[in-house]
Design brief:
Elements (H helix, E strand, L loop, with lengths): L30 E2 L10 E16 L2 E18 L7 E16 L5 E4 L11 H4 L5 E7 L5 E6 L21 E2 L3 E11 L5 E16 L2 E10 L6 H7 L5 E7 L4 E14 L7 E13 L10
Antiparallel strand pairs: 1-8, 2-3, 2-14, 3-4, 4-5, 4-6, 6-7, 9-10, 10-11, 11-12, 12-13, 13-14
Pfam families: DUF6263
InterPro entries: DUF6263 (IPR046230)
Length: 291
């Protein structure tokens, strides 16, 4: 059985037609420095929604699995290091989860309900209200150190915590690449490393907010359909909004619409449809469960 990890395609517009070109505050050729600015003592609160539907057909047997998760999390910004690097604690405050596998009964759990979680959600429940990691980043969002504090490694559909921003100021229409690797298991049991490049493009800037498109491009050939089925869910395609003035993510949306034929035999098929959204919010309570 394959394990599928949780992870809109954009056409680059002519800069002359972009909304930013109509903004009298700057010209199209102006360059923008994208940097994180986190102030000690503040809290950044985010809501992350992840919904996915996977349909598989193997030897004529079809099965549909669906998941839906809404999680509330926050960063506690700590004092900076002597070198001026930013430090924050990552905390997941609450989660609402729904899961259905095939014809089985739908499983639901809300961490704020006070009810014990179903066994399938036990590891996630252990994370609620706890400091999961202390992370140190530089202004470009590069993770310099991470101290994990235990608990499950479940991502809750959140993906990476920070964006890796370009080293130099960037103009509208320009792009930068961020390489990373994912692992896939071959049919003979061996593990293959797949190199992927995430391509970010600055689409527009309005009122201090940068809109970025992101598209993943595989660099390693994926000739085996079984490998492609494992990797497509970790290919990021979508849109990001970044607050240039205050130095933080405002929102992110990633979409998947993938079909892989032959991933487990000639007549097998996998369809994966999913969306993950993340947005900066205010007023989310910092409690994992009701007393």
């Amino acid at each position: 059985m394959l394990f599928f990890a949780n992870f809109a395609t954009f056409v680059l517009a002519d800069p002359a037609d972009s909304p930013a070109s109509k903004d009298a505050s700057h010209s199209v050729l102006e360059r923008f420095s994208l940097r994180y600015h986190l102030n000690p003592g503040e809290k950044l609160q985010y809501e992350v929604t992840h919904q996915a539907k996977t349909k598989t057909r193997i030897r004529g047997a079809e099965e549909i699995s669906q998941v839906h998760t809404i999680s509330q999390r926050h960063w506690d910004i700590l004092p900076a290091t002597p070198e001026g690097e930013m430090v924050f604690d990552h905390v997941v405050d609450s989660v609402e989860m729904t899961q259905q596998q095939g014809e089985a009964e739908e499983i639901r759990w809300d961490s704020m309900s006070g009810e014990d979680p179903p066994s399938v959600f036990t590891l996630v429940a252990e994370q609620m209200g706890k400091k999961l990691a202390t992370v140190t980043i530089n202004p470009m969002g590069n993770e310099l150190t991470r101290e994990d504090h235990g608990g499950s490694k479940a991502s809750l559909g959140m993906g990476s915590l920070t964006l890796q921003l370009p080293e130099n100021p960037i103009a509208i229409g320009e792009s930068w690449n961020v390489p990373h690797e994912v692992k896939a298991r071959l049919e003979n049991g061996e593990v293959k490393v797949i190199k992927i490049q995430e391509r970010y493009t600055l689409e527009k800037v309005q009122t201090g907010v940068a809109t970025l498109s992101i598209r993943s491009e595989p660099l390693t050939p994926m000739n085996e359909d079984s490998v492609r089925a494992q990797v497509v869910q970790q290919m990021s395609n979508g849109e990001i909004r970044f607050d240039i003035d205050n130095g933080r993510l405002l929102s992110k949306q990633l979409d998947w619409d993938e079909t892989v034929v032959g991933f487990q035999g000639a007549n097998s098929l996998m369809e994966y449809r999913a969306r993950m959204t993340e947005r900066l919010v205010e007023g989310v309570p910092h409690t994992a469960q009701k007393p």
